Amino acid sequence: MVVESSLSAMGYFLPIFAFLLVFIVVYALLIKAKVLGDNQAVMLFISFILSAFFIVEASLVEFVRFTSAWFGVIVVVVFFLLALLAIMPGDNPLGFLVKGSWFSWVLLGLMVGFFIISSAYIFNWVINWGMIREWFDTEWFGMLLLLVIAGIVSWKIKG
Fold first, then answer.
1. pTM over 0.70
2. What are phi and psi of 76, to 5 degrees?
3. Which residue, 2, 46, 42, is CA-closest to 23?
4. In 3D, which of 42, 47, 45, 41 has the Cα closest to residue 27?
5. What pLDDT does 1 receive?
6. Contact predicate 21/54, CB 8 Å
7. What angle do CA 10, 14, 20 make, to 5 degrees?
8. FRET label pair with 70: which of 5, 38, 60, 93, CA 20 to 30 Å apart?
9. Each residue of 19-43: pLDDT tens digit?
10. Is residue 122 within 8 Å of residue 59, measured between CB atoms?
């Protein structure tokens, strides 16, 4: 009986913990990135407003839940692909990981695209997901994907 009452009391504090977590993370990111300079009052105000949005709007919480789960999957997949490339034989197999390389730009583009698609999925933008799903199931998409992969591989082998 005591365990049930303590768990129900935890539900009372969960929105407060979510508010504090978002507030602290946003504030720390603003301080670290120095996007707004050294103005502490503006950083505190922006952190407060963004964390208040997460309490008021439930769809923002769903967006963070959906995005963070898939973002974690993408990070793990990229890590394992890079680990697999690191053990490949050859002279510096991870040579493309230098500052200003094409890989960082492609990764940035994929991440921006991922956030746009996930926000469209959560906030129900005007996207016909059924039509997109049907397009992925056609033979043309498989042929196009095969041609793109073959082109990249042949460009890499030739260069």
1. no
2. -65, -40
3. 46
4. 47
5. 47
6. no
7. 130
8. 93
9. 888 888 888 988 998 888 888 888 8
10. yes
